[in-house]
Design goal:
This protein has helices spanning 27-37, 56-68, 87-95, 112-120, 157-161; strands at residues 2-8, 49-53, 77-79, 103-108, 133-138, 150-155. The protein has 163 residues and is α/β, with parallel strands linked by helices. The chain has a single domain (2-161), classed as Rossmann fold (3-Layer(aba) Sandwich). A six-stranded mixed beta sheet has the order 3-2-4-1-5-6, sandwiched between helices. The chain is globular, with a radius of gyration of 15 Å.
């Protein structure tokens, strides 16, 4: 069995004249990342591999989540190739994960995340919100062969703000 957690980067700023890759999080994005990552009781396995896009907004989100999940920041694997908006590329990267790991957490970008979630999960999600968390369980024993997963949990910041 394999468990995949996908997290879309938190809300980022368009204010400064930066390349897309270099855009930082907004204050709301920082707050939402803390809100979601502080409300993951029972969703995070004891041990896992954590990969993040190397883009500023994704890496900043990954660091916030790691801090709140007591995951060592120096163990985050920042992958240039996760800076993608294409779910086929995201799928290739996830399927390349070593089978030594049963639990993978990936921080990335939309459209890739929403399209991946809808292709591999069993719950349709119109749009994975910024700071959105999606937990999918696969019955397969190899990342290379994952398909037809079960969407175990979806958490968006707006869901937690109603409480």
């Amino acid at each position: 069995m394999k468990q995949l957690i996908l997290v879309r980067h938190a809300k980022s700023s368009w204010d400064a004249p930066l390349h897309d890759y270099d855009r930082p999080l907004t204050n709301r994005g920082i707050q939402d990342a803390h809100l979601v990552s502080s409300n993951l009781d029972g969703q995070i396995p004891k041990s896992f591999l954590l990969w993040s896009s190397a883009a500023k907004r994704a890496s900043e989100t990954a660091v916030i989540f790691a801090q709140n999940m007591s995951f060592p920041i120096e163990s985050i694997v920042f992958k240039q190739e996760l800076y993608t908006f294409d779910e086929r590329k995201l799928e290739q990267i996830i399927k390349s994960c070593s089978d030594d790991y049963d639990h993978l957490v990936v921080f990335g970008h939309n459209e890739a995340i929403t399209n991946f979630v809808n292709k591999f999960g069993n719950t349709f999600v119109d749009n994975v919100a910024t700071s959105g968390f999606v937990n999918i369980i696969f019955d397969q024993n190899s990342w290379k062969y994952i398909e037809n997963g079960v969407t175990k949990k979806v958490i968006f910041p707006r869901d937690l703000k109603l409480v």
